[in-house]
């Protein structure tokens, strides 16, 4: 290891404290700048709390530096996560979001993500529990059984939100292989079908990179068709950008660089499809009553909130209150 002359190291976890850390260091207060994963709880005035349960990654996707910058997967102990949720409850939080780089890799001893959720359901009473981004491998039979028995809306007193963000990145096998994603589009489709069958009304959102090195027009059209068939409720679209130090960055010329104009055109097509899919998903629930967590007011003075399955509501009703869950009919 190279011995670098570093006076102060600020971790990614503490980047929001950068100014305080520097001032503290300069005043010789010896602020502890190097820390393990400890309580990581971020509140929103909306009544939602984000709780980091994991960091790092073992996947080594060809376009990403996270495993090198943040190291291998590390998880927060189950007992600590439960304690943080109880703390959030005392602050009148109505929904917790369990987050991380890839929470599919969560593991505390023998406890995996399914075991963590069981403990949270048993030891806390927070009204809604939502997950951050997950990989397809998380959807085991035990995981889906747990959800089907404890999901919001479909089960009395259910608390698990009917929403999963499953990062696809591409729906073309050739592109997935260059990305070093560890599934095929056939496997991904099968997983989504199992999730939709086990959890009626579930919302599945995703991320897709367009213009990845080597992506031909034919690859993109194949990806577009497969994405439409999967039936996501929303797609977050990202034109590929080179990250120095990644395998994809090193191989871009060899695999085939995609012109910026082409990337933007593909991104527009995919965003147009996302709008269509989002509207199609929303239409399924017209005239149905859903629990909506009221979060804020928009510029028009309407209350804005989200259902457990990630449908956005904008409501003109003076009787609503922030940080409360109301039963509202979608019209």
Offer a few descriptive terms:
331 residues; alpha/beta; Transcription Regulator spoIIAA; 4-stranded mixed sheet; 4-stranded parallel sheet; 16 strands; 21% strand; globular
What does this structure look like?
The chain has 331 residues and is of the alpha/beta class. It has four domains: 1-33, no CATH class; 36-161, Transcription Regulator spoIIAA (2-Layer Sandwich); 165-284, 2-Layer Sandwich (Transcription Regulator spoIIAA); 286-331. Helix content is 35%, strand content 21%. It has ten helices and 16 strands. It has helices spanning 18-26, 66-69, 78-90, 113-123, 141-150, 173-179, 185-198, 217-230, 247-255, 260-283; strands at 41-43, 48-52, 54-55, 74-75, 95-99, 107-108, 111-112, 128-131, 133-134, 163-166, 203-210, 234-239, 289-297, 303-307, 312-315, 325-329. A four-stranded mixed sheet has the order 1-2-5-8, covered by helices on one side. Helix 3 packs parallel to helix 4 (113-123). It is globular, with a radius of gyration of 21 Å. Mean pLDDT is 89; it is low at 29-38.
């Amino acid at each position: 290891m190279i011995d670098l002359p570093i006076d102060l190291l600020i971790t990614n976890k503490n980047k929001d404290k950068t100014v305080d850390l520097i001032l503290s260091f300069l005043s010789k207060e010896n602020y502890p700048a190097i820390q393990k994963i400890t309580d990581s709880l971020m509140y929103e005035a909306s009544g939602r709390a984000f709780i980091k349960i994991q960091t790092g990654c073992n996947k080594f996707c060809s376009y990403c530096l996270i495993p090198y910058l943040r190291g291998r997967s590390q998880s927060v102990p189950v007992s600590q996560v439960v304690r943080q949720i109880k703390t959030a409850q005392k602050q009148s939080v109505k929904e917790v979001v369990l987050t991380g780089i890839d929470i599919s890799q969560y593991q505390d001893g023998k406890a995996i993500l399914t075991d963590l959720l069981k403990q949270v359901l048993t030891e806390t009473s927070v009204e809604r529990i939502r997950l951050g981004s997950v990989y397809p491998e998380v959807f085991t039979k035990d995981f889906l059984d747990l959800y089907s028995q404890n999901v919001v809306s479909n089960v009395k007193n259910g608390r698990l939100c009917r929403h999963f963000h499953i990062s696809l990145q591409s729906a073309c096998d050739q592109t997935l292989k260059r990305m070093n994603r560890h599934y095929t589009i056939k496997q991904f489709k099968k997983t989504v079908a199992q999730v939709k069958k086990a959890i009626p009304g579930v919302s599945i959102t995703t991320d897709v990179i367009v213009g990845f090195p080597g992506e031909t027009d034919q690859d993109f059209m194949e990806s577009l068709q497969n994405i439409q068939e999967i039936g996501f409720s929303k797609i977050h679209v990202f034109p590929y950008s080179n990250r120095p130090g990644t395998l994809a960055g090193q191989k871009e010329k060899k695999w085939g660089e995609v012109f910026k104009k082409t990337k933007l055109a593909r991104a527009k097509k995919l965003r147009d499809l996302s709008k269509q899919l989002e509207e199609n998903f929303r239409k399924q629930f017209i005239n149905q009553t859903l629990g909506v967590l009221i979060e804020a007011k928009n510029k028009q003075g309407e209350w804005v909130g989200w259902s457990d399955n990630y449908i956005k509501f904008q409501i003109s009703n003076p009787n609503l209150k922030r940080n409360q869950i109301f039963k509202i009919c979608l019209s």
